[in-house]
Amino acid sequence: MLLEDIVKEFEECPFLQHLGLEILQFEEGDVKIKLAMKDYLLNTNNTLHGGVYASVLDFIQSMHLRSVTKTRCVTTNLTVHYTAPVTGGEIFAEAEIISKGYKTAFVEGTIKDETGKLLSKGTGTFKLIRPDQ
């Protein structure tokens, strides 16, 4: 797949649109996204809901992986560490591949606030869906 096709798939994803995720950069091995806080993303403590952190980490890790492999993937495991709450502004996410084989990959992602403060860190295991499978 071409990078442009992968970006288009993500931009047209209804769940990504609902969250309001914005792709800032999408190049091979260098993907950055941001999310502007919205009231409907908050929990009862008026902080970003933990499920949103998990969704953002899942998106950034799979986007980063696909930018490198140019193939589809599915999440088989996702671990999220919540390090700080956020109540407003914007958050930014990046990822890097820790290891990658032919069938699976292990990826790490981070979410930071506008000042660079770490809000959440997560790891994911992904099954690569190759055209020959």
UniProtKB/TrEMBL annotation:
InterPro entries in UniProt:
ACOT13, HotDog_dom_sf, PAAI_dom, Thioestr_dom
Q: Which UniProt keywords are listed?
A: Hydrolase
Q: Does the keyword Hydrolase apply?
A: yes
Entry-linked Gene3D superfamilies: Hotdog Thioesterase
Q: What GO molecular function annotations does the UniProt record carry, in alphabetical order?
A: fatty acyl-CoA hydrolase activity
Cite the SUPFAM superfamilies for this sequence: Thioesterase/thiol ester dehydrase-isomerase (SSF54637)
Q: Which CDD domains match?
A: PaaI_thioesterase
Q: Where is the Thioesterase domain?
A: 45-118
The family assignment reads: Belongs to the thioesterase PaaI family.
Q: Which PANTHER family match?
A: ACYL-COENZYME A THIOESTERASE 13, THIOESTERASE SUPERFAMILY MEMBER-RELATED
Q: Cite the NCBIfam families for this sequence.
A: unchar_dom_1
Know the name of this protein? Answer: Hotdog fold thioesterase
